[in-house]
Amino acid sequence: MRFGIFAATVLLVLTAGAVRAAEPAPLPPAVGLSQAEAKQRAALFAELAATKNDAEARAVEERIWTFWRGFADAQSREYLEASRQAQLRFDYDEALIYMKALVKHAPGFAEGWNQLGYVYFLAGKYDESLAAIARVLTLEPLHYAALAGEGIILYQQGKIDEAQAPLKRALAIDPWLKERNLILRAPEQKR
Question: Residue 8: inside a domain, yes or no?
Answer without folding.
Answer: no
